[in-house]
Design goal:
The protein is mainly alpha-helical. 78% of the residues lie in helices and 0% in strands. The two termini are 26 Å apart.
């Protein structure tokens, strides 16, 4: 069986997904000024759900009624939404967004290992580990030494973000093993429905009934989290998963910090440091190493 590779279409989709997910750290920081972490997670999936319903109706996508599929969506909702969103948002109440981003970047390494264990067509190779390692080094260079000095794996907030990264890795494998036969839009809808069902009782027990009396910027951040960083993002997510595989899909987490830095330079007039440029180069090299086709062409040449 041929191992999935990153096609040009998949690469473009990964960049778009990184852009949507890169904004989620900023949106979450705004929302956390008034809303507890787990309630933000519920708003994120609950508000995205009706948007996905509209998209499904407009596209005429068939939704499976099989119990097996809905059970798989429920597990996917836990692994890819409820658990990691709650852990990351809680972590961001105690650590900087930059440090959260680099910890989240370990998803690519976790994904390579987890996919190798559970998926026959995605074996763990030196090329995959080397590419993920180069990408993670690039993320570290972009974030800078100041935040790296704050790394402390005995800190529960940092462990929470690492736990979220591991959960994402298992989600990618779970989707390939159980949901590969379902349309991408249907998978996004089912996953969001599952995570909403899971989060409602937890939020009511932990945070109480969510308040709707929120400032306009907070509502704007919550809506952006739901519509851009969730509904639209997960349509891309499942499309990439089908084209590039679970391990390659989660390389997108390495692209999130560069996207955030570029957006800051373009829209906030923030200066790109030389370290950021080197970091981008390391990430690009890591992605090329992981894909392997450039090296193969050089060997043939």
């Amino acid at each position: 069986m041929t191992s999935p590779t990153i096609t040009p279409v998949a690469a473009a989709m990964m960049l778009a997904l990184a852009s949507l997910w890169g904004g989620s750290f900023f949106f979450a920081a705004v929302a956390l000024t008034e809303v507890p972490p787990m309630t933000i997670a519920l708003f994120r999936v609950g508000l995205a759900l009706p948007m996905m319903l509209v998209i499904i109706r407009l596209r005429g996508v068939a939704i499976s009624r099989a119990l097996r599929v809905w059970a798989a969506w429920l597990v996917m909702g836990a692994l890819n939404n409820a658990i990691p969103f709650s852990l990351i948002f809680w972590g961001q109440t105690r650590i900087d967004s930059g440090l959260a981003a680099i910890l989240n970047g370990t998803t690519a390494v976790f994904a390579a290992v987890v996919a190798a264990v559970f998926l026959r067509d995605e074996p763990l190779t030196a090329r995959k580990l080397g590419g993920a390692g180069l990408g993670l080094a690039g993320v570290a260079v972009i974030i800078g030494p100041d935040l790296l000095r704050g790394l402390d794996l005995t800190d529960l907030a940092q462990l929470a973000v690492l736990g979220a990264a591991l959960s994402y890795a298992f989600a990618g494998v779970w989707a390939r093993r159980t949901l590969a036969d379902q349309p991408a839009d249907a998978n996004a809808l089912g996953m969001l429905a599952g995570s909403t069902v899971l989060l409602i009782p937890v939020v009511l027990a932990v945070d109480g009934v969510p308040s709707l009396d929120l400032a306009a910027p907070v509502w704007a951040a919550l809506l952006a989290l739901a519509f851009l960083s969730t509904a639209l993002a997960y349509m891309l997510y499942f499309g990439i998963l089908a084209r590039a595989g679970a391990a390659n899909l989660l390389l997108v987490t390495l692209l999130i910090p560069p996207v955030a830095v570029i957006l800051g330079a373009v829209f906030l007039d923030e200066r790109l440091s030389p370290g950021a440029i080197y970091g981008f180069g390391l990430i690009a090299t890591g992605l090329l190493v992981t894909d392997g086709r450039v090296a193969a062409r050089l060997r043939r040449g």
